[in-house]
Amino acid sequence: MISRILAFTVPACRRAGSRAVLGELATRSNACGSAVVLSQRRLMSHERNVVQSPFGSVDIPEKNVTEYIFEGYEKYADKPAITCGASKRSYTYGMTYEMVKRMACGLLSQKGCAMRQHDVLGLLLPNIPEFVPALHGGLLAGLTVTFANPLYTAEEVCRQFENAGVTAIVTLPMLLPVAEMFKSKMKHYKGTICIGGKHDLDKNIYGFEQFLKENHRSELPEIDCHKTAILPYSSGTTGLPKGVELSHYNLVANLAQGSHPAISKYYQPEYLEKKETILTIPPFFHIYGLNAILHMVIKSKNHVVSIP
């Protein structure tokens, strides 16, 4: 039997077919091998392009940005937090955080703006101290906050706020006509808070100072730090301004990076108790002026002077 198997010969046509199949398999194998090699080369090239920080990894806490920057404010409650460089109007850390909480409650209160979590609050403000309670009151209430350049035309502001889904605005008396123009375009507008103005409830306008003094009561929500916190818009250099969604976690991560002692002297041991007065020029409606300057100064408990 064994001799018969060894003596058996495959017909020529079958041998040819086998060679063809083997050749196709070899071609496929070579192609797969080439693809694997190419993939490995791309991975190696990608790894070579990854830039590692010389300062190591950064611990990013799971906190909302308001909680993160005001952490430990009680120790500096009587120290100046922010001052208007024009009017010299100034608030301490204790006053500022109290205003933040009252603003948050007023925005949610049924006797106030009756906003709901994830509604969008629009700020139409220059660099003034009240920008802080307006912004962080909104964030503490669980809202998304967007801001527009107060030098924009009314049409530009309305386009941005409509695109962002704004349902309430914080602004100044001189910019009230812009807010009124926007209100006329909206079906479910919830109110305008006017810094330096007075209540005009027939027009759904709330004076900022009186709004805070009314001390509204509301239950503040738990905030998911991965939800959208702010919605800044590009300047429109290459087209119309576009919104950029940034979560609390995004903002906190950036602040944590900038808090490294090798980057900021205010986190070096000899500076921990030294507090300075820092002048800010970039606008708060720009992400650099907001997070890299205003938030950094508040987090380090220094004193910021704003220029309207």
TrEMBL record:
Residue ranges of every copy of the AMP-dependent synthetase/ligase domain listed in the record: 74-298
Gene Ontology biological process: fatty-acyl-CoA biosynthetic process
GO molecular function ontology, one term from the record: long-chain fatty acid-CoA ligase activity
Keywords: Peroxisome
Chief localization: other
Compartments (UniProt record): Peroxisome
Name of protein: AMP-dependent synthetase/ligase domain-containing protein
Organism: Anopheles quadriannulatus
